[in-house]
Description:
Blueprint lengths: L2 H10 L6 E3 L19 E6 L6 E4 L4 E4 L5 E4 L5 E6 L61 E2 L6 E2 L53 E2 L5 E6 L19 H13 L7 E6 L1 E4 L9 E2 L4 E7 L14 E4 L13 E2 L4 E4 L2 E3 L2 E2 L10 E4 L3 E4 L2 E3 L2 E2 L6 E4 L2 E4 L2 E3 L2 E4 L3 E3 L6 E4 L2 E3 L2 E4 L2 E3 L4 E4 L2 E3 L6 E3 L5 E4 L2 E2 L15 E3 L4 E4 L50
Parallel strand pairs: 10-11, 11-14, 12-15, 13-16, 14-17, 15-18, 16-20, 17-21, 18-22, 19-23, 20-24, 21-25, 22-26, 24-28, 25-29, 26-30, 27-31, 28-32, 29-33, 30-34, 32-35, 33-36, 34-37
Antiparallel strand pairs: 1-2, 2-3, 4-5, 5-6, 7-8, 9-10, 38-39
Amino acid sequence: MTALRQLLVVAVSLPLLAATACTFEDRPLGEHPCDACRPCETCVVPDGGTLPICLAEPRGSRFCGVDGNVHWRDSCGEYTGIAEQCPAKHAQCVETMQDVAACECTNHWEGVSCDECPGNWDPGKDCNACANYWGGSDCTVCPEGMDPATNCADCLGNWDPASSCSVCKNHWKGSDCETCPSNWDPARDCGACKGHWEGADCDRCPGGWVGADCDTCVRYVDGDVASSGNGLSWKEAYESIQEGIDAAYTATQQNNGPVRCQVWVSGGTYWVYSTAKTDTIELKSGVDLYGGFDGTESDLVNRKHVTTTLSGYHPERIGKVYHVITALDDSSVDGFTIQDGKADDTINMGGGGLIANLASVAIRNCIFKNNETLAWGGGAFINGPARIESCLFSNNTAMSGGGIHFDYYGTGSVVANCTFTQNSSGNGALSKDGGTITVVDSIMWNDAHQEICVWDQNGISVRSSDVQGAVGGTGNIDVDPLFVDAASGDFRLSAGSPCIDAADGTQAPATDIDGNARVDDTDSPNTGIGPPWADMGAYEYQP
C-alpha cells in the first residue's frame, strides 16, 4: 500500500476533520496531490494544514453484517463501525452484505420492536405459521367445520377437533354432524348411552329396565321359581309379590332413581295368608303392581292377561286375611283377581279385597269377588281420591257398599267402565259417605237390595250407565245387560245387548278388562257418545 493509501486508511478511523476542499483547476492533471484521489474520495486540506489529503466519507451506506447488526460503510465501501444493534426477531443477513435502511423484522413480526404478530399468525411458532386451524397463504382461511367466531380454535357444532374438524366427534352423524343415533344421549354430547341403555352400541337394556327408551323400571315376580332371585328378569324373578313391591320401592328411593317402578307378576294363585290374618299385600308409593303375565313378556303392551289371583284364603290355614291388599298413597294395581278377603273384626271392618285408607290409588282391570266385611266395602273400602276403571265386582258382601264403599270427603274419584253384579249389601253395591264421585260407562245390575246408596244424598254423578232401578243422568238406561252366562260368572255382553256401543267412548279407557280394544259393532246402534264407540261395563263385546 502506498504512503498515501496508508494515510487514507488511517483517516477513516479518525474523527471527521474540519477541512476545505482543495481544487487547482489551473494545474495540469497529475501535478497536484488531489489528482490521486479516487472518485469515492474527496481531496481536502485539513484545517490548519497545508498538505491536501484524499478522504473517504465514513457514513456512506448501511449494511447488515454477519452478526445480524446494521453496520456503516464509508464511501469507498470499507467497514467503519456498528450503526445499529438489531434485537431479537429482526432480520439476519449472513451471506449477502446487502444494503439496508434499518433493522428488519423476521418472519411476519411487526412493530417498532418486532413484537406484534399480526392477523392469525401464531406467536408461539415465531410468527411463521398460522395460529389454531387458520390456513391459506395469509392465514385468513378457516376450514369448513371450524368456527371463525372462536378464532378458528374450535369446531363448529359436533365436528371433531382431533380430526381438524373433518369428521364428526363421538357418535354424531349427518352431513352437519347434527344427528345423535337412537339410544345415544345428545345431552351427553352423543358420547354416552341414553337413559339406561348399555353396551358398545347402546343396544342392550340392562336387567330391571324395559321400554322403547329403556326408561321403565321393572321388578319381576313368578311364584313358580325354584328360589327367589334378584328380581331383575323373569329368569331371576322374586318368588313373592311383596319382595317385588319392596324392591321396586327401594329403587325409587335411590339417588337419581326412577320416579316410579313397576312390578310384573306372572299368572297363577298367590296365597296372601302366610302366618296371620293381618297378612296383606302392601302397595307402596310410586309402585305400580301389574298381573296377567305368562312370564315371557318384555313389554307391558304384550301382556297376555293370564289369570293372576291374589287370595286371602290359604288351604293350610284357618280363616282368611282381613285385607288382601292394603294400598298406600300414590300406588296402583292392575290385572288381578282379588278374592277371599274377610274384614270381620271391630278394628278391620272394611275392604276385604282392598283397603285404601287416607291414600290415593288407581285400580284397573281387576276382578273383586267373594270378599266380605262386617261394615263397609266388601270388595274395596276407599278413603282417598281414586280412579277405578275396567273392573268387575261380583259376589262381595258388606253392610254398606257390597262392591265399593267411598268414605272420602274430597273430590275427583271416578268409577269408569266397571260392572257390579251379584253383590250383597243392605245399602247398595256402591255406597258413599261424603265427597263427590263420578260413575260413567258402567253396569250395575242384579245386586241385592239396591245398586247405589248415597248416605249424604248428594255428590254423585252417573252418566252413560246401565243401572237397575233407574237413576237420573245423561245417557243412563235401565235394561237387562244380557250377560253371556251370569250363573256361571261370565259377565261379558252377548249379541244384542243394549250396552253395546252405548257408552261415552270419549271417557272410556282404550282397552277393556281382557285387553281388547274398543270395537264398533256394526249390528248394534251407536246410542252412546263417540267415536270411539265403546260398550258399558268392564267387557267390550267382540263381534
